[in-house]
TrEMBL record:
UniProt key word S-adenosyl-L-methionine: no
Species annotation: Smutsornis africanus
Classification via InterPro entries: AceGlu_kinase-like_sf, Ald_DH/histidinol_DH, Ald_DH_C, Ald_DH_N, Aldehyde_DH_dom, Asp/Glu/Uridylate_kinase, G-glutamylP_reductase_CS, G5K_ProBA
GO terms under biological process: L-proline biosynthetic process
Pfam families xrefs: AA_kinase, Aldedh
Localisation per UniProt entry: Mitochondrion matrix
Domain Aspartate/glutamate/uridylate kinase: 32-290
Protein name, UniProt field: Delta-1-pyrroline-5-carboxylate synthase
Role according to the record: Bifunctional enzyme that converts glutamate to glutamate 5-semialdehyde, an intermediate in the biosynthesis of proline, ornithine and arginine.
Length: 758
């Protein structure tokens, strides 16, 4: 039973048969019935006379895509007045030109004034054309559309309400998209905002309230309100410090200052919020977003339905903790406070964290055991990933040793002077190291990554946002708690934040005003997805670890099998594991070659033959599908080359610029390889597995970078620093250095201050 207030023009929903609205954006993908409200600013051109055809076509395409997925789509549209205004202006100009030509007898027309056009007349002239346009567009996607015109009186009359409800349900049943609009040709002038005192009542006086009313009446899952602003801001858009509100909760109205109404149409943002809250109370989720921005309007509707962070999402469920935006601001402020500490204080925090890893090992291992048990019971992780997820006493001890290395080496990182120049007398310039700002580190199945990265961020004075995989949730929680406990000894607890909200990684990558650098640590697919999703934020990392070992003709028999075994078999899931083995052609059918093959078989390594290697064999292993493959398991490719030069060319063509090795006793050949291979790490007679921050003596690493930016290879503290310039003068001005000025540039290099090497 549905009960409604008997106050004229006002209704009140008391219950919803379809339950409550969605609590989180990620649930919007389950929306079945959706209303899309197109504001006047979205549908009309900037001159308010005529329709924005390109934008409208894009919206129809998105609605059609969702309709063809099996959803039930409805559109509440504006635009009839603008379309009619365009038609009437054209008719008036044509009529005036004909009359003027008849009366004056002249071909030259004088300036003609266009009278003010009455809105209801424009609506009457524009409705048929607007609907014809929608029909033509939807026909391109084999979808039928139907027009429904309503007024507030139609909702006041119980019989008309039932008829409207039945018509809409029948259209949806037949897979037809209803296109609804207020009948502006007969609608009375808008009434005063008598119903803005609460959210329990609403009258249909604009398309915002119409969309909300229909959404509640039809028990829709989602109402998308498209306007000409990104969403709801905490103050008028364009004003200083105005911030987009990601999630809006009932009761937050007091924290918002509303600006003026839309440039066209009846409503403003206050009317949209009023309608959205009313629909939310009725059980319909609401998102207000920008439907006019050229970069996002082509996918704004589908992005919202996919749960992406677009516009303002209205929710009745307020999370217990801070939002990710708030966490970003906390990390920024905490990072600045961290950078302001003395180097000894930052080192003290890291030493404390190292102690906590060993002192609290039982709690850490207990949490890790929960993660392992859940992962095994669900069967969602492969064996190599389970190994990465697992923590042990020896791993924690190694972590603690690495953290102490970082603490010891961090004494002279932030604020180190790397260049001094005397510009002129009493005008000295310094270039000093400073933190990058706020880092976002995204990692999978690697809880040991959390204390490593935290220690490096602390040592370099950076704020840190951590996003770990849900498979390591318990481990990450305890490790983050211990990190904040260590930070608390100097009051900078907020510098390291663990993102526990239901944020999608793609949404985090869009926070370009909060994050300065993204560092992904995980699969090549994760890294590629982040590189693709990052909007205006640099990404440090590598998408693939296709590492090569080249066995030269002058290779030592004793060294070859040891280095290959360690490179491939010690930890095959690592990004620095051997993936392609290059063998000089002269070594084929030699005892050394047989030893290599026997060793790989004993270690149960599956061999794939490269094209040239396969051509030498009568019965070869399975031929490789691609020479650019990262196996991440006990598999590798073997290919034959004719020379060290060909080996270098192969690596440049198929490698990922990660780590590449030559095994040879010929120093000249080795040096050629070392100098010509353009990878982040190039080794001679050493395992690829040495490509690691801890093994390099960096204490730990935030990741391995294969890009050409300042940090390459294993990235430690130095890779998390940038610089700033400090100029100290005494009443200096540039005009003094002009041709006839009193001062001259010196540009003298000055000695650097003595570094602390203890």
């Amino acid at each position: 039973v549905r009960c409604w207030s008997n106050i004229p023009f006002i209704t009140m929903p008391l219950s919803r048969a379809h339950g409550k609205s969605f609590a989180h954006r990620s649930e919007l993908k389950h929306a079945k019935r959706i209303v899309v409200k197109l504001g006047s600013a979205v549908v009309t051109r900037g001159d308010e006379c005529g329709l924005a055809l390109g934008r409208l076509a894009s919206i129809v395409e998105q609605v059609s895509m969702l309709q063809n997925q099996g959803r039930e789509m409805m559109i509440v549209t504006s635009g009839a007045v603008a379309f009619g205004k365009q038609r009437l202006r054209h008719e008036i100009l044509l009529s005036q030109s004909v009359r003027q030509a008849l009366h004056s007898g002249q071909n030259q027309l004088k300036d003609m004034a266009i009278p003010v056009l009455e809105a209801r007349a424009c609506a009457a002239a524009g409705q048929s054309g607007l609907m014809a346009l929608y029909e033509a567009m939807f026909t391109q996607y084999s979808i039928c559309a139907a027009q429904i015109l309503v007024t507030n009186l139609d909702f006041h009359d119980e019989q008309k309400r039932r008829n409207l409800n039945g018509t809409l349900h029948e259209l949806l049943r037949m897979n037809i998209v209803p296109i609804i609009n207020t009948n502006d040709a007969v609608v009375p002038p808008p009434e005063p905002n008598s119903d803005l005192q609460g959210v329990n009542v609403i009258s249909v006086k604009d398309n915002d309230s119409l969309a909300a009313r229909l959404a509640v009446e039809m028990k829709t899952d989602l109402l998308i309100v498209l306007s000409d602003v990104e969403g709801l801001f905490d103050s008028p858009p364009g004003s200083d410090d105005a911030k987009l509100i990601d999630i809006f909760y009932p009761g937050d109205q007091q924290s918002v200052t509303f600006g003026t109404k839309s440039r066209v149409g009846m409503g403003g943002m206050e009317a949209k919020v009023k309608a959205a809250l009313w629909a939310l109370q009725g059980g319909t989720s609401v998102v207000i977003a920008n439907g006019t921005h050229p970069k996002i309007s082509g996918h704004v509707i589908t992005d919202i339905v996919e749960g992406k962070k677009v516009g303002t999402f209205f929710s009745e469920v307020k999370p217990a903790g801070p939002t990710v935006e708030q966490q970003g601001e906390m990390a920024r402020a905490g990072g600045r406070a961290l950078a302001a500490l003395q180097p000894e204080q930052r080192a003290e925090i890291i030493y404390r964290l190292a102690d906590l890893l060993t002192d609290q090992r039982e709690e850490i291992l207990l949490a890790n055991k929960k993660d392992l048990e859940e992962a095994e019971s669900k069967g969602r992780l492969a064996l190599p990933l389970l190994k990465r997820l697992s923590l042990s006493t020896s791993k924690l001890n190694s972590l603690a040793i690495g953290l102490r290395q970082i603490a010891a080496s961090s004494q002279d990182s932030v604020g180190r002077v790397i260049r001094r120049t005397r510009i002129a007398k009493d005008l000295d310039l310094e270039q000093v190291t400073v933190p990058i700002g706020v880092l976002l580190v995204i990692f999978e199945s690697r809880p040991d990554c959390l204390p490593q990265v935290s220690a490096l961020a602390i040592a370099s004075g950076n704020g840190l946002l951590l996003k770990g995989g849900k498979e390591a949730a318990h481990s990450n929680q305890i490790l983050h708690h211990l990190t904040q406990e260590a930070l608390s000894i100097h009051g900078v607890k907020d510098a390291v934040q663990l993102v526990n909200t239901r944020e999608e990684v793609e949404d985090l990558c869009r926070l370009d005003k909060l994050i300065d650098l993204i560092i992904p640590r995980g699969s090549s697919q994760l890294v590629r997805n982040i590189q693709k999703a990052a909007k205006g934020i640099p990404v440090m990392g590598h998408s693939e670890g296709i590492c090569h070992v080249y066995v030269d003709t002058d290779a030592s028999v004793e060294k070859v099998t040891r280095i290959i075994r360690d490179s491939k078999c010690e930890y095959p899931a690592a990004c620095n594991a051997l993936e392609t083995l290059l063998i000089h052609r002269d070594l084929l059918r030699t005892p050394l070659f047989d030893q290599i093959i026997d060793m790989l078989r004993v270690e149960q390594v599956k061999i794939h033959a490269g094209p040239k290697f396969a051509s030498y064999l009568t019965f070869s292993p399975s031929e490789v599908k691609s020479l650019r493959t990262e196996y991440g398991d006990l598999e590798c490719c073997i290919e034959v080359v004719d020379s060290v030069q060909e080996a270098v060319e192969h690596i440049h063509k198929y490698g990922s610029s990660h780590t590449d090795v030559i095994i040879t006793e010929n120093e000249k050949t080795a040096e050629f390889f070392l100098q010509h291979v353009d990878s982040a790490c190039v080794f001679w007679n050493a395992s690829t597995r040495f490509s690691d921050g801890y093994r390099f003596g960096l204490g730990a690493e935030v990741g391995i970078s294969t890009s050409r930016i300042h940090a390459r290879g294993p990235v430690g503290i130095e890779g998390l620093l940038t610089t700033k310039w400090l100029l100290r003068g005494d009443n200096h001005v540039v005009s003094d250095f002009s041709e006839h000025g009193s001062m001259k540039y010196l540009h003298e290099s000055l000695p650097l201050p003595q570094r602390n090497t203890n």
